Amino acid sequence: MTRFGKLLVFLNLGLAVMLAAWSFNLYVNGIDWTDRKDTKTTPPKMGQFALRAAQLDELWKNVAPAQKDWLGERNKLANEEKRLAAERLWYDKEVRYVLYGPAKARGIREIALAVKDDPTTRVKRGEVLLDAQGYPQLVPIRDPANVPLQLQSLAEYNKEAEGIQKDIEQLMAQHAAQIAEANALTDKIIGDKSKGVRGLQQRINDEQDKNAGVLAEIKLVEPQLLNTLVEADLVNKRRAQMKRRIDELKRAKVVSK
Which among 45, 88, 95, 116 has most CB atoms closer than 10 A? Predict the structure, then answer.
């Protein structure tokens, strides 16, 4: 046998010894995965499967109560979600009623609040009062004098506001026309040089100026008129004298007819 062959034999022997030691160690210290239950020994020897099964059985003992509580809470949650859906429909209906109405007959209402503590229902002062179905109670809105108010919905108030706005616009247009008419009448009264309008006031002023001129002229002419009247009276008297003298001369036949 050659030296290389001897070396391979020794290597094979060493590897076999190592594998044998490893196998013995696994046998002595190995994990028992069986379901063996040896209750005669102290402490009892149990395989890992039996041990895991016992732990699983112990855990399953707590599953049933927890599952029962979970199912109960789940049913409560389902009931609350069902009630929440119904409450949403109720609140949506009330909100739409406040927004769109029609609320002329019934009027908008408010949520009723407890005015004092009620030991029977355990409702405290200031909390919302509920009806038999569990929805908030709605009562008429009252003013500070405790008089019920007949409030309408938002849509109805908007429609009423639109009508009022149209009336305001018509009144504003009528007011603007009246202002324009008043300005035109004012121009007729006081005049407007830029428009070439001679107002009534200017005409009155012109007539007053003419009247003042006439009065001034009368004052100038009046003395002359008096003098003329005096002279006319004197002329008439002189004429009467001359006529009487002519008549005397005629009677004396001094002058012919």
Answer: 45
